[in-house]
Specification:
The protein has 8 helices and 10 strands. By secondary structure, the chain is an alpha/beta fold.
Length: 256
């Protein structure tokens, strides 16, 4: 299934016919093959962490990432039951496909937690990207740990396709981000990322540039990208969440 909005203005098309916002419902490894080579200015994504918290790799995502007193019934999501070697190999293939689609100088920004940070950096480098650093995401609402330290951070890994794109004028982005996940009826996905965090990340792409999210979930990256005058291509395996993202971003649904 392909979901798309009306074409962008000529200023945002940068010489091609790609629309301002397109969402593909399907598996990333399949859909990425259809993304034209060298057309993406930044890859910003939140892959399934496949962390073993709350019941192991085989546990549903809701059991791992939703507390027992949560006041929502958000849908589960697929792809979060891989073991470490399977996760690393799969993610490396996704990132290699993203590299092919990216322009030289494009950045990759990928979320992870502390458990998967080592293998996530391995997957990025195995996919051909140059690892540039880590941006901690400080979460004001977080979980305490008995006799230990609060789980107050997740992480964003930064990598580039060769030398980083040089903005004109130059930009200087923060190395520490703070923001809370949306609550109540504002929350659309179990692991939804805050739009204010995504608004900082999308600045890594030039104005009018194309941002690709191969795990777009409910569309937080797309919302931030469009608000900042960037274009957006999202891929989401879940039909449910692809529909949520489409509604959020004002798309028209097209059946295959």
């Amino acid at each position: 299934m392909r979901l798309a909005v009306e074409p962008a203005s000529p200023a945002h098309n940068r010489g091609n016919r790609m629309s301002a916002c397109t969402i593909h419902q399907g598996d990333a490894l399949t859909v990425l093959k259809s993304i034209p080579t060298g057309t993406v200015d930044a890859v910003i994504c939140d892959p399934p962490y496949n962390s073993s918290a709350g019941g192991g790799f085989k546990a549903p995502a809701r059991d791992k990432y939703v507390s027992g007193d949560a006041q929502h019934g958000l849908a589960d999501f697929a792809g979060d039951q891989r073991d470490q070697r399977g996760f690393t190999a799969w993610l490396a293939m996704v990132y290699a496909d993203c590299l092919r689609a990216a322009r030289p100088g494009a950045s990759l920004l990928a979320f992870t937690d502390w458990r998967q940070l080592p293998v996530s950096s391995d997957a990025i480098q195995a996919g051909g990207w140059i690892w540039r650093g880590i941006i901690p995401w400080n979460k004001p609402v977080n979980r305490p740990k008995r006799d230990g330290f609060r789980a107050s951070c997740e992480y964003i890994l930064w990598a580039t396709h060769g030398e980083p794109y040089r903005h004109s004028p130059s930009i200087y982005l923060p190395g520490l981000l703070t923001g809370s996940q949306p609550h109540g009826n504002k929350r659309r996905h179990i692991t939804e990322k805050p739009v204010n965090i995504m608004a900082e990340l999308v600045k890594i792409a030039p104005e009018g540039g194309m941002i690709l999210d191969p795990f777009c979930g409910s569309g937080s990256t797309g919302e931030a990208a469009l608000a900042a005058g960037r274009r957006f291509t999202g891929i989401e395996i879940s039909r449910h969440y692809a529909g949520v993202a489409a509604e959020r971003l004002g798309t028209q649904t097209h059946q295959p």
